[in-house]
Amino acid sequence: MRPSLFLLFFIYWFAPAAAQESADKAGLSEAGLTRYTAWLQNEISDGRLPMAEAIIYRNGEVGYHEVLGTSTVETGTALEENQVYHIMSMTKPIVSVAFMMLYEEGHFRLRDRVAQYLPEFSELRVARNVNEGLEVATDPADSKVTIVQLLTHTAGFSHGLAGTPFDNAFAQAMYYQPQAAIADRVRTLASLPLVSQPGAQWYYSASPDVLARLIEHFSGMTAAEFLQQRLLDPLGMEDTGYNVAAEQTQRVVANHGMVEDVVQLAGFQLPTSGNTVYGGTHGLYSTAADYLRFCQMLLNGGELDGRRYLSRKTVELMTMNHVGELRERGQGFGLGFGVVTDPAAADVAGSAGAFYWSGAYCTYFLIDPAEDMIAILMSQRSPFSGYHFEMMQQLVYQALAD
Questions:
Q1: In this structure, are residues 224 and 213 in contact, taking their beta carbons and an 8 Å threshold?
Q2: DSSP H or E segment with residue 46
Q3: Engineered SS bond to 254: which of 72, 188, 321, 367, CB 3.0-4.6 Å?
Q4: Are 363 and 239 in contact (CB under 8 A)?
Q5: Beta bridge pairs of residue 78
Q6: pLDDT at 202
Q7: DSSP class of residue 16?
Q8: DSSP of 275-335, one letter per residue?
Q9: Counting beta carbons within 10 angstroms of the beta carbon of residue 248, is it exposed (0 to 12), middle (13 to 18) or buried (19 or more)?
Q10: Dist CA 73 CA 84 (whole Å)
């Protein structure tokens, strides 16, 4: 059926005008947004990204929402608004928020030892040499891992991402061997050596899986049930979960990989159903619109649409730097979030106090309270690209008009 003349008139006349009005209310410049769109389109055209869905929310207004590229390069099917992405490590902030809801109920203190609740963490050992596999010689941990160390990635656990012989073997044991539930994965984690003494360094880790297991311990529900009842359903995050309903699988965006510097459909696609390990490191599917709801709640200090999820002081605590100088280049880490401590040292435009994280398939978000702003960029490409996160920040901040 051909579109009506009215619809065509609306698309070509009123829609751009409405978009510019929203951008003006958000304090975003037309020239700056045009540059951002052109950069995203160039990344897609040059084969560095297969697709991009980008949102800038500022001053209470969605001032920019662009959807570019294809949901799968093999078919050339255009990416559409509200498609579903595997958000990988952007699961971590959601699980951290859910965990801190239990903190507010008084189930634990941040300084509590993890072994107080999960005895398998009582006798941890530390690898002497990460250039060896899991059979490496070890020493006893000189202190007990605490809950705050789980939240800040300072407990000494690995994530299996560094490419060392130890990390490769760690990843194989954690993520490529059958695990029935998060309790099984966490028991595996507790059986593996640490990469450093607890508290000695910041090392990106599988600690959020322990948070998911502790959610089970304190709530009596699976992490999936707790998230659904306490966070996802109340926030209206209808398309976020560890499994995708069968009738919605056609909305899932395919993951892509780089072959000879060109984006191609990845040979491995994560399952959209039958997932039973409700982890904290990764596992959630979501949409840009759903993740915006989550970010709005945090930007508002723990409240959205008249419902409070966390107190303002808890959100402040979570978004402070808890790791001192253990991270580099103007970056700290809070309770589940990266935190910008010094934009000049980070060599990218931004604000001290902004907090953020990203996912292995090139999904990114940034919340900047000083600018009353949220920026989200969704794609599905591995390996992860830190370049695209830095460029997202560069292009978002140059678009501010006030």
A1: no
A2: none
A3: 72
A4: no
A5: 70
A6: 98
A7: H
A8: -----SSS--EE-HHHHHHHHHHHHTTSEETTEESS-HHHHHHHTS--STTSS-TTEEE-S
A9: middle
A10: 16
